[in-house]
Design a protein that fits this description.
With 495 residues, the chain is α/β, with parallel strands linked by helices. It contains 20 helices and 15 strands. The relative contact order is 0.08.
Length: 495
C-alpha cells in the first residue's frame, strides 16, 4: 500500500482497528524498525527512513459548536509549530498554518512529510442534527486540509480514515488523487481479524475460553463465530470478526455484547429518531446495489448507508448484476440493535425494560406460557401511547423486540413454511412456541391459521440437548387496539 499510491481513504465501523492501523503507519514512517522485529515488514522494507509524520485525530473531542473544532485544530497546529520553531500567530488561517508546517518540516529534514488523519468524520457526525453547524464545520475542515493538494508534490503519503462517507469526502474534494479502498478486495481484511488469523494465532486463548464456559474447543469456535463474525467489506471479502469484541471475549472469557457495552452510539440514536426503523425488516435483510449503501450519509433518504458504514449491516451475499444482500453481521449486533430500539417502542426506563425481559424469559424457559403472556399484557399497558405510534404494527414490533432480547432463545419472525409464514417462532432449549397475531379479532382465528398453514410442521422433528422431542405449542394472540395491550389469547400444546 505504501509503495503503490500516495493518498488513501478507508472507512470502517467504530472499534475496528482504524486507529491502530494509523498508529502502525505512523511508527512505520517514523522508521521504528525495532517495533516490526520478527514480522514480514522488517525484511520487506529496505530504507526505514524517519519521515516527519503529522497525525491528526478528531476522536478525542465532541463537536457541538464551532469553537470545539477550533480548539482541536489550534492545539494540534500549536504543537507542530513549536516542534519546528514556527510562530503560528503570524496567520490565523488553519490552512495557511498547516501548509507552513509541512513546508518547514520538508526543508528541515529533507524528507517528504506524511499526513495521517484518524476519524476525519467525527465533527460531521456530532453535528448531524445541526445542518448549519455541519456546513460551517465542513467549510473549516476544507480550509484546513487544502494543503494536501497544494503540497502534494512534497508529501510522501496521505492516509484518511473514518466511519462514514460524507458527500464524496467533500472536505477533501481538492485531493483529486485520493484512492478510496473501502470496498477493494485487496484491503478487505486490513482492519479486523480474519477467521484464518483467529484459528491459527489464538488457539490457546480459544481453548481457555472453552474450558471456562464448559464447551469443547469446536463449541467455543462456533460460539465466537456466531457472536462476533460475519463482516464482509467487499465482493470477495473473507469473514471478518469484530476485533474489539473478539479480543475482549478472549480476555474476559465471556460471550458478551462488548461492542455495545459503552452505550448506544450517538449515530444510531440519531438514525432511530430520523427514520422509522422496523427491526423485523432488518432481520430479513435488504437487497441493494453498491450505490445504495456506499453513499454520502447526510444526503441519504434512508438509514441504509449509515447503518452499513457504521457496522450494523454488512454484505451477507454478493448477487449477480452487482447486487448485494445486506443484513446483520452477527448475533451481537442483532441483539444490541434490538436493545437500542426498545426505548422507542416501549419505555425509556431501561431498568424496567430489562427487569421485565428477564422475568418473561424465565417464564418461557419454565414453560409458564400464561404467566409470560400476563406479564407481557401488564408491560404493554404501561407503555406510553403517543401519536406517532398509532400504526397497527407498533405492538407487533414490540412483541418481536421482547422475544428477540430474551436471549439465548432462537427467535424467528414470519417463519416460512410450504404454505406460508408464521408471525413468530420462539424456540427455547425444551420448547417451540409458534405465535400468530390478530388485531381486534379472535384468538381462535389465529389458531386456525396456524393449523391451516401448517406452521408447526417444520418443528415436529426439533430435539433438545437431551435428544428428546421438544414440546410444541401454538399460540393465538389478539391485540386490543382500544385498550392498547394484549386482549385474549389461547394456546394449545400439540402432542
Amino acid at each position: 500500500m505504501t509503495h503503490s499510491h500516495r493518498a488513501y481513504f478507508l472507512s470502517r465501523p467504530r472499534r475496528f482497528g482504524k486507529s491502530l492501523l494509523v498508529s502502525t503507519l505512523q511508527c512505520y514512517f517514523e522508521g521504528k524498525r525495532e517495533l516490526f522485529s520478527g514480522l514480514a515488514m522488517e525484511s520487506l522494507e529496505a530504507e526505514w527512513q524517519s519521515h516527519p509524520v503529522f497525525l491528526m485525530s478528531f476522536a478525542g473531542n465532541k463537536y457541538f459548536a464551532m469553537h470545539d473544532l477550533a480548539d482541536t485544530l489550534e492545539y494540534k497546529l500549536s504543537v507542530w509549530e513549536k516542534q519546528y520553531g514556527l510562530d503560528g500567530k503570524q496567520s490565523a488561517a488553519w490552512g495557511v498554518r498547516f501548509e507552513k508546517v509541512i513546508e518547514t518540516a520538508y526543508e528541515k529534514t529533507g524528507l517528504e512529510p506524511v499526513v495521517l488523519v484518524d476519524e476525519y468524520d467525527a465533527p460531521l457526525l456530532d453535528s448531524m442534527d445541526n445542518p448549519a453547524l455541519q456546513a460551517s464545520i465542513k467549510q473549516e475542515l476544507r480550509k484546513f486540509f487544502s494543503p494536501l493538494k497544494d503540497k502534494g508534490g512534497i508529501l510522501r503519503f496521505v492516509f484518511l480514515t473514518g466511519i462514514s462517507k460524507f458527500s464524496q469526502l467533500s472536505i477533501f474534494s481538492e485531493l483529486n488523487n485520493l484512492n478510496v479502498i473501502t470496498m477493494d478486495d485487496d484491503y478487505a481484511s486490513i482492519c479486523g481479524i480474519t477467521e484464518q488469523e483467529l484459528f491459527s494465532q489464538m488457539k490457546s486463548e480459544i481453548q481457555a475460553l472453552a474450558d471456562r464456559n464448559g464447551l469443547s474447543y469446536e463449541g467455543a469456535c462456533s460460539a465466537l463465530k456466531k457472536k462476533y463474525d460475519g463482516y464482509h467489506f467487499s465482493k470477495e471479502s473473507p469473514d471478518i470478526y469484530n476485533p474489539f469484541s473478539l479480543l475482549t471475549a478472549l480476555s474476559k472469557m465471556s460471550f458478551t455484547n462488548y461492542w455495545f457495552s459503552t452505550g448506544t452510539p450517538s449515530t444510531l440514536t440519531k438514525l432511530i429518531k430520523r427514520y422509522d426503523i422496523n427491526p423485523v425488516d432488518f432481520d430479513k435483510g435488504f437487497m441493494a446495489t453498491q450505490e445504495m449503501f456506499d453513499f454520502p450519509t447526510e444526503t441519504a433518504s434512508s438509514p441504509i448507508p449509515m447503518l452499513y458504514q457504521s457496522g450494523y449491516l454488512t454484505i451477507k451475499k454478493t448477487l449477480p448484476g452487482d447486487r448485494f444482500l445486506l443484513g446483520y453481521p452477527n448475533d451481537e449486533v442483532r441483539e444490541g440493535f434490538s436493545k437500542a430500539l426498545m426505548p422507542y417502542y416501549a419505555t425509556n426506563d431501561v431498568v424496567k425494560n430489562d427487569t421485565f425481559l428477564m422475568a418473561f424469559a424465565d417464564d418461557l424457559e419454565a414453560g409458564k406460557l400464561d404467566e409470560a403472556l400476563e406479564r407481557m399484557r401488564a408491560f404493554f399497558s404501561s407503555v406510553p401511547y403517543t401519536a406517532e405510534k398509532k400504526d397497527e404494527n407498533h405492538y407487533k414490533t414490540l412483541f418481536y423486540l421482547i422475544a428477540r432480547l430474551c436471549t439465548p432463545f432462537v427467535v424467528r419472525t414470519e417463519e416460512a413454511s410450504a404454505a406460508g409464514r408464521a408471525d413468530m417462532v420462539i424456540e427455547t432449549s425444551a420448547s417451540v412456541y409458534v405465535f400468530e397475531f390478530k388485531r381486534d379479532a379472535s384468538s381462535e382465528e389465529a389458531l386456525a391459521q396456524i393449523d391451516d398453514k401448517g406452521y408447526l410442521i417444520p418443528y415436529t422433528v426439533a430435539k433438545g440437548n437431551d435428544g428428546k422431542q421438544k414440546k410444541l405449542f401454538k399460540i393465538g394472540v389478539n391485540f386490543d387496539s382500544k385498550k392498547r395491550t394484549l386482549g385474549e389469547w389461547k394456546w394449545i400444546k400439540v402432542d
